[in-house]
Write a structure and sequence with these properties.
Blueprint lengths: L6 E9 L14 E10 L4 E2 L3 E4 L9 H7 L3 H5 L4 H19 L5 E4 L3 H13 L10 E4 H8 L11 H14 L1 H7 L4 E2 L9 E2 L9 E5 L7 H7 L5 E10 L5 E9 L2 H8 L4 E3 L2 E7 L2 H8 E2 L2 H6 L6 E6 L7 H8 L12 E5 L5 E9 L2 H8 L4 E3 L2 E7 L2 H12 L21 E5 L7 H8 L6 E10 L5 E9 L2 H11 L2 E3 L2 E8 L1 H8 L3 E3 L2 E3 L24 H5 L28 H10 L35 E6 L7 H7 L10 E7 L4 E9 L5
Parallel strand pairs: 1-5, 5-6, 8-14
Antiparallel strand pairs: 1-2, 2-3, 2-4, 6-7, 9-11, 9-13, 10-11, 12-13, 15-17, 15-19, 16-17, 18-19, 20-22, 20-24, 21-22, 23-24, 25-26, 27-29, 28-29
Protein name: Epithelial splicing regulatory protein 2
Subcellular location: Nucleus
Organism: Cyprinus carpio
Amino acid sequence: MASHSDTLVVFFGATAGANGGKLGSDERELILLVWQIVDLHENKVGKLQRTLVQPDSADLSEQCKEETGLTAEELCKAEPLESVLQQFYQSVSAELKSLGRSSYTLCVDGPLLIRQVLHPEASKKNLVLPECFYTFVDLKKEFQKCCPNAGPARDLTLTSMLDCILLMLWVLPWYLYHKFSTFETVNYKFESGACSKTEAVDSETVIRARGLPWQSSDQDIARFFKGLNIAKGGVALCLNAQGRRNGEALVRFINSEHRDMALERHKHHMGNRYIEVYKATGEEFLKIAGGTSNEVAQFLSKENQVIIRMRGLPFTASPQDVLGYLGPESPVTDGTEGLLFVKYPDGRPTGDAFVLFACEEYAQNALKKHKQILGKRYIELFRSTAAEVQQVLNRYMSTPLISTLPPPPPPMVPITRDCIRLRGLPYTAAIEDILEFMGEHTIDIKPHGVHMVLNQQGRPSGDAFIQMKSADRAFMVAQKCHKKMMKDRYVEVFQCSTEEMSFVLMGGTLNRSGLSPPPCKLPCLSPPTYAAFPATPGMLPTEAAFYQPPLLATPRTPQAPAHNPAPALAYYSPQLYMNMNMNMNMNMNYTTYYPSPPVSPSTVSYFPAPSILPPQPGALVRMQGVPYNAGVKDILSFFQGYQVTPHFHFSLTHSLTHSLTHSLIQVLEFKNK
């Protein structure tokens, strides 16, 4: 047993690669162990023990051959590390027993042998080290305390220290005994814990590890850095924009010395992957691991708990549902108190939750339920960390309730919130389903006021906008229909303005992190000039160009109305273009984007035509996703049942950026049979 005693075991070793100040930096194995017992009480030195260790690879470096004089043939006859460690333990125990002693102090000439070689290699080979290798005395540091003028401890060599140390052992043993004031320790295991954003983190103690397997946990990272002491809660796994691990982690050590040794493990291996290790800052660590939520702090206050992350939970799942899913073989710490559901700021569930388990066995039983079904969904389970809990909560709690909308118009222009937004629609929902969902409020919908939002693939996104006759009607619908069921899903209903609706229907992204502008440069939306938009007084000619409809391929001149006037062409509101112009960064390197058209019962328009346009007998339709081998007959067959002007024209365009085929059919006059 290692302790502060009057018996020392001086320990030395060498690897098959670099030695000295670079010991352990090349990930080479131990090939030699040397030890000797020193009895300070009797002023005696025991027999020098020298044992070879058989490595998995007997390829020796030139430095190793020169310093040790060993050959590959000799090492092939040696015992493996596990046997040598047993031999060391038995030899030291027997010699101590002969001296009538029960404890000793392990002494090394620097921490590298213990921290950078022995512990990492034993961890990779799944060996259990004797307790003595978790507490030791660094003779270089002790010598530096006695002789401050000798220079930094890391620069001292055994040769420069040997004579002085032997003199102290023989002449002043009591002095050495009482001056062993600093004992180095190696943590048995990594301790998880919470970190506050207000906590001071020294940048000289933080590193960034890159290239980690995505399934690695904080314990796996601590095992990679075995031998070095990581601060409590000092492993922060980084997440990408989708909330998944990106193969990076920030690790905080107890001091700069351990951080410097961690940097020497650059490109060491975790399994078959090499891990890159770089310096990082305290600010980076706090950004990932720091938190301010009292709920999270209370959840993480329980010591020595194993954390499991559950992803994909039904939004209606209750704590009892989760406990039942995990089963009695995976009891959660403190029942429902050991569950933490991740929610948006408005209280909506995200489908994520964190669970605490008291021991590794319970956590392993829970992980066996990975991708099993709860309700109608399969649930993913992963090992997690306290830092990941903070990171996920910080991300979701900082998400806006709705989207980050563009700046409002000047104060003198009031915003009318006469629209509603439906979110969470079944993907199979049609306009008839929406009208049935609205019930008695359908009479308050403007003509052609139902707009389904499609994604860039032309499929339903689960969102829709409805134009109501007044803001009061929109408010009433939002109050009465919010979270009302449609088929097997509840639908959220929010009141919004026409500008917000227009922003989305023009191609702006509608997601949980905010509204993003459509990926296009505004001047590319339309040709440079268009005759149907004469410049109004006080408007520059270039401003008029911004108001042009993006779906028209060539200018058209007004035509005389027919006997049965057709509905006017559908254009986007000029005010929308103005808002887009003010709120989009014109220097963004976007490619041309074609907004997905909404679906309405009897029109292809987004909004009624601006009053400045004269009535026109035709309408223009863009087709997206046309098969590459489609011809004119196929397109005409597709529009069977609608009247097409006798002299129609179409063109096929190919977008190299999006690999889409578009058909532009000009002058199509839509009428039901």
